[in-house]
Design a protein that fits this description.
Four copies of one chain form a homotetramer. By secondary structure, chain A is mainly α. Chain A has helices spanning 2-28, 31-38, 42-48, 52-76, 81-98, 100-110, 118-142, 152-171, 173-183, 189-204. Chain A has one domain: Tetracycline Repressor, domain 2 (Orthogonal Bundle). Chains A and B meet through α1, α6, α7, α8 and α9 of A and α1, α5, α6, α7 and α8 of B. Chain B binds a DNA duplex (21 and 21 nucleotides) through residues 1-4, 6, 30-32, 40-44, 46-47, 51-52.
Chain lengths: 205, 205, 205, 205
Amino acid sequence: MNQKLTEEKQKCILETATEEFGERGLFRSSIRSIAKKSGVSVGVIYKYYADKEALFFACLDHSMESLSEVLGKAADEAASLEEMMRGLIHACVVYARDHEAYFRMYHSITSAESGADAGEMAERIEGESAAIYTSVIKKARSKGLVKKDAEPAMLAFFFDNLLMMLHFSLSCDYYKKRMNIYLGDKVDEATLEKQLLSFIMYGIS
Amino acid sequence: MNQKLTEEKQKCILETATEEFGERGLFRSSIRSIAKKSGVSVGVIYKYYADKEALFFACLDHSMESLSEVLGKAADEAASLEEMMRGLIHACVVYARDHEAYFRMYHSITSAESGADAGEMAERIEGESAAIYTSVIKKARSKGLVKKDAEPAMLAFFFDNLLMMLHFSLSCDYYKKRMNIYLGDKVDEATLEKQLLSFIMYGIS
Amino acid sequence: MNQKLTEEKQKCILETATEEFGERGLFRSSIRSIAKKSGVSVGVIYKYYADKEALFFACLDHSMESLSEVLGKAADEAASLEEMMRGLIHACVVYARDHEAYFRMYHSITSAESGADAGEMAERIEGESAAIYTSVIKKARSKGLVKKDAEPAMLAFFFDNLLMMLHFSLSCDYYKKRMNIYLGDKVDEATLEKQLLSFIMYGIS
Amino acid sequence: MNQKLTEEKQKCILETATEEFGERGLFRSSIRSIAKKSGVSVGVIYKYYADKEALFFACLDHSMESLSEVLGKAADEAASLEEMMRGLIHACVVYARDHEAYFRMYHSITSAESGADAGEMAERIEGESAAIYTSVIKKARSKGLVKKDAEPAMLAFFFDNLLMMLHFSLSCDYYKKRMNIYLGDKVDEATLEKQLLSFIMYGIS
DNA sequence: TATGAATGAGCTTTCATTCAT
DNA sequence: AATGAATGAAAGCTCATTCAT
């Protein structure tokens, strides 16, 4: 019973910290503030996490795991390349509504602020999806669904670039504003999804 | 204790700081370290800049100005939509070779860590290019060069997203590594440029 | 790393700081030095006081409260004007033996260095005693104990001036030395008290 | 001709610094600001004065000299004890109108802020007047004009205490305000002078 | 085991002082 | 001789981290 409380607490800390880190960045966030917002003492955080950075990376892992699960499911369920892409795009849009903070964490590791090893992080986070996207495109190409004069990896890269920007545009303040500059203050998400998919499909095939 | 290299020194401080900020972010960078690397005393930095943030934003402005000049020229010189895009892509690739730090500053403002007003920053930095890209695509559409079933603003947005990712992929550690995961360690820039352009042109038309 | 002597420690900080401020003034005093002398870390001072100024004013308040209590008691217990004055003078002399630092704090606010609002400070510190002294003298005048050709407020003012100089002469280095110049190195306090009282009583009546 | 300018400049620096020191204290005053207000460069100040403290003490000397001249004249011209005291009191009041800053400097050395040797300062500044006042009172006593049951030095001390408080009450913000609390916002100087003299004369004789 | 007061390294920032020009 | 840019020591202050309770 105590164990359960702990587990709950641990999750609460993680969520609160993710929120804080996503909103203020690693350095402007403070352990004290996270502890207070989580309703625990500072000491408890240091019981679970070696230091601030460790908590940061735990948040990151948590976010990435959750994100990757959602996207993985979207990819797995798809019967075709187009459906996979449609699914991934849609999953992003839906997921962003409730999990801005996770996307923001994603963005934060792409910056230099944490001092993390970029190589290792990228490998861990991008490796799998890169392989999947590339392989799916390759397969589609062998079926003649994708143009031959482009490398599948390259197309996967472009696709993922657009997907990444979609993440950020739906969650990070700067990118949100930037999207508003392009598309106006009220962005119709259905249209956005449709046109993005269309843009990609034309670009690919 | 001398008033030599004022002009030169000032530029040196800016460059060094841009490097440091790009590499370590606003908070992990320290004025002391920037001063030491610039070969000046701490005091001299505070002569030119009110505080650390002011220096940061000066670096940002400097980077954005330089970047925007290069991209602006590439856009202006273009006779057609395709040429504009090719020009912009190529300018990025060439520019990235010598000015990684500028692109990195660009990336740093898209993160939350600086605490800057995202809305204002985006307006200042993205406003112009958004207008230009959209207008050029609109014009091309009226000539039948662009598909009718997509909004020009949306296409411009997708294009700029890909361009933005190109910036980061050529300059920020995480994105560099990520590109390597997709495209291998030795990325042939000419091929990348060509295929990106092709992807975009197909996506648009 | 312990939460012992909170109460005691807090008082110790206040006393040490009062000593330091009285001896060196607000600006020559340093938080670091006060912390070291108090046997606490710098951080702990900032736990209790928002900043250096807040500590300074806390010391001031503490001193003034203590001083005002002592003088208040002396005034309250007096049956006549003369006794009140004798009591106040004597209280000063006795109090000065153990609480030089408090008197010094008193002096420090009369200088411009703290940047405090002089008007507000004076009102807070002098207001009450001014009213009391004036009222007591007025009452005595109505009994014919005080000459009629002088305003009670004026007489109260002169009396308080002499009392104030007594404070300083018993506590602040410069005033101490000055008193020695006038009265020799060994000042007999009983004589001083008696003659000051006599001087005042003659001046008043 | 250059020499003259220098001399003038020197005086200007001294006056400006005295003003600044009197208003803000030694530590809150800055050499830069004094230089700017004097219309000279920082270097010029360091040509004349070894450091900030030296300038401070030069201002002090200048103030004290000027003050002592005025008071000395008032004392010399007096034919009797009462006239001397009336003259000194009046000189204070008149002098305060144009030379607040000098009185303020006087006050500043009585505080600990400068770190000056209090003993030496007091000797230099108070020595002479202590001797004069005491001697004049002694002479008057031998003529039967002063009560026998008080030491002349003690009386001189009390008198000088009241004079000192008059200085401060006419120039320093805190003391000004304090006087207003006792005497109201509009203090009639003629009345003040008269009543103070009366208070003293009764106190003495 | 959980707490949160205490620690102190290390940051930004100021400004008296120097000295090349 | 005068200038004022440059210096850098030293201050105030914050906050990640520790550990007595």
